[in-house]
Design a protein that fits this description.
The chain has about 220 residues and is α+β, with helices and mostly antiparallel strands. Helix content is about 25%, strand content about 30%. The structure holds copper (II) ion. Copper (II) ion (CU) binds next to strand 7.
């Protein structure tokens, strides 16, 4: 009796795990084989604000440790870390992984009504090449592109996809923008403003004290 109960319990557990996995896969449009995968590929659905596909563009991105050699503080890199594309263009990305570990080319912040989790994502196994296509949104904006393998972004695999005129550089794009975060409301002359404030803070009370002694 106990055995059959255990059997039924473990069977139902197995079935629920299976169906959960299937739901997850249905949620993302995924295509994968032994070389890697493309998630949320899109060849024909137009984002809002696009009347038609404006152009077809193709970029080739190589990833590997050799692209980090000339950039201090990095271990992994890509052949480019910034790409300019037209709004509403159909973008085909050929992603070449030259390393002996897995790498990804993952775009974030895309419209969630058509790209689940706002993501388009290519993953290539060691030494493999994977090609994927998606349609770029209509707004002028910069989108974060990175490799989501543990620590790879921090080690250099961080880039930006600039759509149209773009919309504000992202920080720490390898070899492109400054490696630290500065809030947009802070002045460019922050260091000088700090020194000035310190000087005023020192000399004003000193002067006031002197003035008081004179009386
Ligand atoms: Cu990587």
């Amino acid at each position: 009796m106990i055995y059959s109960k255990t059997l039924i319990l473990s069977l139902s557990f197995f079935v629920s795990i299976q169906s959960y996995g299937m739901q997850n896969h249905q949620h993302h449009k995924m295509h994968h084989d032994v070389d890697g995968m493309v998630m949320n590929g899109n060849h024909d659905i137009l984002p809002q604000g696009c009347e038609k596909i404006s152009s077809e563009q193709h970029i080739t991105v190589s990833a590997g440790q050799q692209y980090a050699k000339n950039i201090p503080g990095t271990i992994f890199g890509m052949s480019q870390h910034e790409w300019n594309v037209d709004p509403c263009s159909k973008l085909t990305v050929t992603f070449i992984n030259e390393d002996d570990i897995r790498h990804q080319w993952m775009v974030h912040g895309l419209p969630k009504y058509m790209y689940p989790a706002g993501m388009f994502h290519i993953e290539a196994m060691a030494g493999k090449t994977i090609t994927g296509t998606f349609i770029v949104p209509s707004e002028d904006r910069n989108y974060l592109v990175h490799c989501d393998m543990a620590q790879h972004m921090e080690m250099g695999m961080r880039g930006q996809l600039v759509v149209g005129k773009g919309g504000g550089d992202l920080w720490a794009v390898t070899g492109v923008t400054k490696p630290f975060y500065k809030a947009a409301y802070l002045s460019d002359n922050l260091v000088y403003l700090c020194i000035l404030t310190l000087l005023i803070g020192y000399f004003l009370p000193t002067w006031l004290v002197k003035l008081r002694h004179k009386r």
